[in-house]
Amino acid sequence: MVVFDDEMGVCVPYGLDPDCDGALGIDGPVAVFPDRKTARRAITISKKRDELEVAQGKPANTDFTESIKCVKIKDVEVVGSVALPAPAE
């Protein structure tokens, strides 16, 4: 799962952006990825989309450019249709 976590109380999970195939957004259901590589790819696509929007002079979500250190991949365990934090090892 990919989240925006500023470590000061804001922790928001991302879903898939319905307007950009493969990119992340805050609208829609939370996206749970099968592995870290797939989650990392979604972050990369989101960053490139944001850079393009800025270059075109469009409003852009700066989470993946200016605030990238707050974008984190969290391991979760899916039980039924609920994602729970992965147990500590």
Gyration radius over CA: 13 Å
Helical content band: 10-25%
Strand content: 15-25%
Shape: globular
Structural class designation: alpha+beta
Which ranges are low-confidence, i.e. pLDDT below 50, for 5 or more consecutive residues? none
- Main beta-sheet strand count, sense and barrel state: 3 strands, antiparallel
Mean pLDDT: 87
**Would you list the SSEs in sequence order as H and E?**
EEEEHEEE
Number of E-type strands: 7
What features would you describe in this structure?
The model has no long low-confidence stretch (mean pLDDT 87). Strands 2-1-5 form a 3-stranded antiparallel β-sheet, covered by helices on one side. By secondary structure, it is of the alpha+beta class. It is 22% helix and 25% strand. The chain starts with a strand and ends with a strand.
Brief sketch in words of this structure:
This protein has one helix at residues 36-55; strands at residues 2-5, 11-13, 15-16, 24-25, 71-73, 76-79, 82-85. It is α+β, with helices and mostly antiparallel strands and 89 residues long.
Please write out the topology.
Layout: E1 2-5, E2 11-13, E3 15-16, E4 24-25, H1 36-55, E5 71-73, E6 76-79, E7 82-85
Antiparallel strand pairs: 1-2, 1-5, 3-4, 6-7
Which keywords apply here?
single chain; alpha+beta; three-stranded antiparallel beta sheet; two-stranded antiparallel ribbon; 22% helix
